[in-house]
Amino acid sequence: MARASVVIVGAGISGLSAAWELSSTSPGPDEIVPRIEIIEAADHVGGALVTTQFAGRTIDLGADGFLSRRPEVVQLARELGVEHELEAIDASGAWIFLRGALNELPAGLVLGVPTSARAFDGVKGLSASARRHLRRDAWFPKRLHVGDDASIGEIVRTKFGREVSYQFIEPMIGGIQAGRIDELSARSVFPALLEAAKNGGSLMKALRSTSPINPEPAHEHETTTPMFSTLRDGVGSLPTTLARELKARGVVIRTGVSVSALRRTPSGNYPWEIDTSDTTTPADVVIMATPANVTGRLLGAHDDALRALEDVPLASAAMVTFSMAQDQITLPPRGTGVLVPLGTTWSGDGSMMVTAITFLDRKWPHLSEPGRVLLRAHVGRSDDERATALSDSDLIERVTKELGVLLGNFGLTRASLVQRWPSSLPQYRVGHELLVERARRAASSLHVALAGMAYDGIGIPASVGSGRRAARETAAMLDHTTR
Ligand SMILES: Cc1cc2nc3c(=O)[nH]c(=O)nc-3n(C[C@H](O)[C@H](O)[C@H](O)COP(=O)(O)OP(=O)(O)OC[C@H]3O[C@@H](n4cnc5c(N)ncnc54)[C@H](O)[C@@H]3O)c2cc1C
């Protein structure tokens, strides 16, 4: 019997995790381990996880940390033997720019959604009417009729009013997704919010007991688990380690080669042939770990449910990282960064482009150096592509001016670096879960598994989980393969 063959398209963390899971399963006595080949268009593995040298330090250019209260990445690090390289976040809390000043975020937020009206008493940047809305949810909650899905905006606007929703909740939730609360699906992005809205009553009270990120540890050992972590050499070191270990297991990894077509070959030995510009690889099962639009383009001809993946909107983001002397900048006394509500006006052209600032060396102490500050400004949203039109130097100039307003003092920088992430963040709009369910069903009938940040959530843990899930689906498909 010919050896089974699996091709994984895309060597981001989801594709690599799929290969890891698939190559971890020990074969039965009469079984032969499948041949696994990963094909990656970029000249490096990791996709959105990549590091570089900047101002004498190794920093991440994309994702820089992960939610370690979720088990996926910690478990993977353990399996790879790099658990000792995990670094816990060293700061907590953050600030929000409201009415021209920094306000400290109150405690008890669940993904930016308040769980106590009283906690907001100290937030000076919110109007008295916004505070009244919060108290009303506690005492006389508004009724809301929601079906199987609703936008996060619809829920929080009804319950808390526009000011709290757009000035407070959107910068938090929208910041993770680079999207707008009026478009993001509650069912996909924040299922606990949808459930709470369906059940009626006070949203704040309901969320106090059901947090999606579980701030109340269920087990005693979790009290010592940090909320966020990174790796000493950056989360970008994770795919590099994974690729090295996969090669040691015999997995073939080809970088700098783009998959140009997938062809069905029902009369051949293998049901699929995967083309690059100069090779064709046969496969029993294909794992598509590419961005949704690429998967939709490559597989759309086979099924409309797969073609629909091309329509998942993608937001672009850019990040500008600065290194500077400590006496050139004034930072708030504590916290990991600052959020900036969309549409924040200032003396410059249009609304602000900066959506958030991250104090990198406060978050990750291994990056700190005496007398120096390392910080990063984030720009770009699903409907804000202004950064795309600016050259790197114009973007740095613009961001520098905005940081001066946001922080009050932002002087001479020693080094700056622009990293762009064009069309990189999938938008989970209302109805997304259904779209994914249909696409998965169609893919499965073709012996294709889907993995990546467009399906099971944005974030490294979700992407690792997504890759492992695709591998388990693949193993089940291989079990039913007769050649
Ligand atoms: C700017 C940014 C910041 C983020 N910050 C965080 C964070 O701080 N914490 C966190 O947990 N998560 C963060 N995320 C999310 C996290 O990075 C993702 O969930 C995760 O990296 C997605 O991995 P993936 O494998 O699904 O996709 P990707 O990393 O996008 O990998 C897809 C791969 O497919 C390849 N590919 C595309 N087309 C082809 C083709 N035709 N042939 C072959 N290969 C192809 C691409 O080159 C790419 O390598 C961030 C994401 C972005 C974009």
Ordered list of secondary-structure elements with their pairings:
Blueprint: E1 5-9, H1 13-24, E2 35-39, E3 51-54, E4 57-60, E5 66-67, H2 72-80, E6 86-88, E7 95-98, E8 101-104, H3 128-139, H4 152-160, H5 162-177, H6 186-189, H7 191-199, H8 203-209, E9 228-231, H9 237-248, E10 252-254, E11 261-264, E12 272-275, E13 280-283, E14 285-288, H10 292-299, H11 304-307, E15 314-325, E16 337-339, E17 354-358, H12 360-363, E18 372-379, H13 392-407, E19 415-426, H14 432-445, E20 448-450, H15 460-479
Parallel strand pairs: 1-2, 1-14, 2-10, 7-16, 14-20
Antiparallel strand pairs: 3-4, 5-9, 6-9, 7-8, 11-12, 12-13, 15-18, 15-19, 16-17, 17-18
This protein binds flavin-adenine dinucleotide.
Overall description:
The chain is α/β, with parallel strands linked by helices and 483 residues long. The model is unreliable at 212-222 (pLDDT under 50). The protein folds into 3 domains: 5-47 and 238-312 and 428-479, FAD/NAD(P)-binding domain (3-Layer(bba) Sandwich); 107-209, protoporphyrinogen ix oxidase, domain 3, CATH 1.10.3110.10; 314-426, Alpha-Beta Complex (Polyamine Oxidase, Chain A, domain 2). The chain is globular, with a radius of gyration of 23 Å. The longest helix has 20 residues, at 460-479. Helices cover 32% and strands 20% of the residues. The strands form 5 sheets. It has a 7-stranded mixed beta sheet with strand order 8-7-16-17-18-15-19. It has a 5-stranded parallel beta sheet with strand order 10-2-1-14-20. Strands 5-9-6 form a 3-stranded antiparallel beta sheet, with helices on one face. It has helices at 13-24, 72-80, 128-139, 152-160, 162-177, 186-189, 191-199, 203-209, 237-248, 292-299, 304-307, 360-363, 392-407, 432-445, 460-479, and strands at residues 5-9, 35-39, 51-54, 57-60, 66-67, 86-88, 95-98, 101-104, 228-231, 252-254, 261-264, 272-275, 280-283, 285-288, 314-325, 337-339, 354-358, 372-379, 415-426, 448-450. Strand 12 (272-275) and strand 13 (280-283) form a beta hairpin. Helix 4 runs antiparallel to helix 5. The structure holds flavin-adenine dinucleotide. Flavin-adenine dinucleotide binds next to helix 1, strand 19 and helix 15.
